[in-house]
Specification:
Elements (H helix, E strand, L loop, with lengths): L7 H65 L4 H32 L71 E2 L6 E2 L15 H13 L4 H10 L6 H27 L3 E13 L2 E12 L11 E7 L5 H6 L6 E3 L20 E3 L2 H9 L7 H20 L11 E2 L5 E2 L1
Parallel strand pairs: 3-6, 6-7
Antiparallel strand pairs: 1-2, 3-4, 4-5, 8-9
Length: 414
C-alpha cells in the first residue's frame, strides 16, 4: 500500500480522485440497471404483444367457426364440442394476455424509454338498465387547488360504473303459529301449518328452484351441489337433495302434462332430437333429448308457442311413437328413419303428415364437392327457389324429390 501524503493539498487531491472514481462506478452501475430494466420491459412488451396476438387469433378463429356453422347449417354434436373447446382456449389466451399486459406495464413503469403495451379490447357493453344503481359520491374539494379560493361552482360529474355482486346468503325462516285456549270450552285453536311445495318439506321454494336449475339447467350433479353447500356451512346430503328433487318432479308433473296437451293439440309440430350424456353404472352413456315445438306465429296463429321435452337412454323408434301416439297433424323433422312408422297409412288413429326439413336438404347441396362440377352444383342450389315458385303457381317444378314437390309452407306434398 502506498504511503499516504502528509500535506493537506495532496490529501484533498487524493480524496477528489477517489470521489471521481466512485461517481464513475456509480454511473456505470446506474446505466447497467437502466439497461437491465429496459431489457426486461422490452421482453415483457414483446411477450404481451405475442399473448395479445394469440388471444386475437383465438377470438377470430372462434368467430369464423360460429359464422361457418350459421352459414352452412352444421349442427353436429362434434361441432358443438369443438366450439366449446375453442371457447376454453380463448378463455385461457385472454387471461394470459391480460396477465402479460399488466406485467409489461409494471416493467415499463421502471423505465423512461419503453412504452407500455396496451392490448386492443372490444368495446364494453353498458351494464343492463334493470340493475339497481348504488351511488357512492366522493367528497368534493372545498377550495381551488390552484389559488386556494373557496368560490367553487359545480360544472358536472364523472361517473365510473363498477359491476358488483352480493354473495349468496342463507337464512332460516321461522313461521310461528301461536296456540290459544278457550277459557269457556277449553278448545285449543291454532292457525294451519304453512304450505310447502314438497311433502314434509323443509326447503323453501327459491332453494328448490335453484337446486333444480343447477341440476337440469347447468348440469351440476347433486353430489357437487352438496359439496358446494357444505363449503358454505350448509349440510344437505346427497340423499336429501335427491329426495327433494323427486318430490319436486312429482309436484310439477301436472304442469308438464298441461304443456304436453297444448303442444300436441297443434296442427303442425317441429321435431328434433340431440345427444346428451347420461350417467350409468360406472360410466356415461349417450342418451337423447327429444323436443317438439309448437309455433304457429309464422302462419298467423294466435296460440302461444311452446316446447315439449322428453328424455331417453337410446334413439330407438319406439320413443317418437310413444311421444306422438295420439297425434295426427303435420310433423316437420329430419329424415330420421325412426319417424317412418308415424307416416304409415295403416297407423292408428291416422298417419302423421311428413314435412321434410329444408335446412338438411340445402346442407347437402352446399357441401357438394367442387370436383363434381360447379354448373351442376349451382343448378341444385337453385332448386329450392324453383320449388317455392312452383308451389305458389301450382305448377310442378322439374327435379322434384321422389315425384313430390315442396309447398310454400315447406311441406312435402305428393
Amino acid at each position: 500500500m502506498a504511503a499516504a501524503p502528509d500535506d493537506i493539498a495532496a490529501l484533498k487531491a487524493a480524496l477528489a480522485a477517489a470521489e471521481r472514481r466512485a461517481d464513475l462506478v456509480q454511473h456505470h452501475l446506474s446505466q447497467a440497471e437502466r439497461d437491465r430494466d429496459e431489457a426486461v420491459a422490452d421482453a415483457a412488451r414483446v411477450k404481451a404483444e405475442a399473448s395479445g396476438a394469440e388471444a386475437l387469433i383465438a377470438h377470430l378463429t372462434l368467430e369464423i367457426e360460429k359464422l361457418k356453422r350459421e352459414l352452412y347449417g352444421t349442427r353436429s354434436e362434434k361441432k358443438a364440442r369443438l366450439l366449446d373447446q375453442m371457447e376454453l382456449q380463448l378463455e385461457d389466451a385472454q387471461a394470459a394476455a391480460t396477465e402479460d399486459e399488466l406485467a409489461a406495464e409494471q416493467a415499463a413503469a421502471k423505465t423512461t424509454t419503453v412504452h407500455a403495451f396496451t392490448r386492443k379490447r372490444p368495446s364494453k357493453k353498458p351494464f343492463p338498465e334493470h340493475l339497481p344503481r348504488e351511488r357512492v359520491v366522493i367528497e368534493a374539494p372545498t377550495s381551488c387547488s390552484c389559488c386556494g379560493s373557496t368560490r367553487l361552482s359545480k360544472l358536472g360529474e364523472a361517473i365510473t360504473e363498477t359491476l358488483e355482486v352480493i354473495p349468496r346468503q342463507w337464512k332460516v325462516i321461522q313461521t310461528v303459529r301461536e296456540k290459544f285456549a278457550c277459557r269457556e270450552c277449553e278448545t285449543i285453536s291454532q292457525p294451519p301449518a304453512p304450505f310447502h311445495p314438497t311433502p314434509r318439506g323443509f326447503l323453501g321454494p327459491s332453494l328448490l328452484a335453484m337446486i333444480l336449475f343447477e341440476k337440469y339447467g347447468q348440469h351440476q350433479p347433486l353430489n357437487r351441489q352438496s359439496e358446494r353447500y357444505s363449503r358454505e356451512g350448509i349440510d344437505l346430503s346427497l340423499s336429501t337433495l335427491a329426495d327433494q328433487v323427486g318430490a319436486c318432479v312429482h309436484a310439477i308433473r301436472p304442469l308438464h302434462g298441461l304443456i304436453e296437451r297444448h303442444v300436441l293439440a297443434a296442427e303442425r309440430l317441429h321435431g328434433d332430437d340431440t345427444t346428451v350424456p347420461i350417467l350409468a353404472k360406472g360410466k356415461t352413456v349417450t342418451g337423447r333429448v327429444w323436443v317438439y315445438v309448437r309455433d304457429d306465429r309464422p302462419f298467423g296463429g294466435a296460440a302461444p308457442p311452446a316446447a315439449l321435452f322428453y328424455a331417453s337412454r337410446d334413439r330407438t323408434a319406439e320413443h317418437p311413437e310413444r311421444h306422438l301416439a295420439g297425434y295426427g297433424g303435420i310433423l316437420q323433422a329430419d329424415a330420421y328413419a325412426g319417424y317412418g312408422r308415424l307416416y304409415a297409412m295403416e297407423r292408428s288413429p291416422g298417419p302423421v303428415t311428413e314435412a321434410l326439413c329444408w335446412s338438411h336438404g340445402r346442407r347437402k347441396f352446399s357441401h357438394d364437392h367442387p370436383s363434381r362440377g360447379g354448373r351442376n352444383r349451382s343448378r341444385r342450389q337453385r332448386m329450392p327457389g324453383q320449388q317455392y315458385r312452383a308451389s305458389r303457381t301450382g305448377v310442378r317444378a322439374p327435379g322434384g324429390v321422389d315425384g313430390r314437390s315442396f309447398s310454400h309452407s315447406g311441406i312435402v306434398t305428393p
